[in-house]
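>> received
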Amino acid sequence: MDSHQHKEKIRNKLLERRKSISEPEYYGASADIIEQLKEQVEYRDARTIHCYVSINKRREVETRELIKEMLSKGKEVVVPITDMEAGTLTHVQLRSYQDLESNRWGVLEPTGGTEIPLEEFDLVIVPMVAADEACNRIGYGEGFYDRFLSQVDCPKIGLIFECNVVDELPTEDFDVPMDKIITEERIIHQ
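>> returned
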């Protein structure tokens, strides 16, 4: 089995595992993860934060309340817009949570806004399907975040539930490890 097939097998298994998290457990563990994130110096010192808008039905660590809080506290919040055809992300400043609308895949994205250059980011908060003890991640397999993260020179923090952390993931040259990974139980450092 090559690395790509191995990743696909892990991804499918851990997506199933994540899907089985009960709603109370999902929101409780997400809140614990976000509280730990807010204690990190990278978060406290960051002025411009790139953050994914969680797809809650997919059980991504919940970030919607965090985004609302960051906006209310005056942080500059940048969220991605996905171009499925080009395989790229555009990074747009979010002025108000009300500017988010569901795209054709059911993902909340801004309806417009100012594109922010990557060099202005102080922190990137990254979604994950799987993580390992060496701060590697597996996403959904389309490579959007790997292409984006390879161009970013700021701290990258991944958010994931402890049940989706494994000892070791297969990696490829284009994979970009996180600086930190936060679960509801601990913080994994590179």
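>> The chain has one domain: 3-189.
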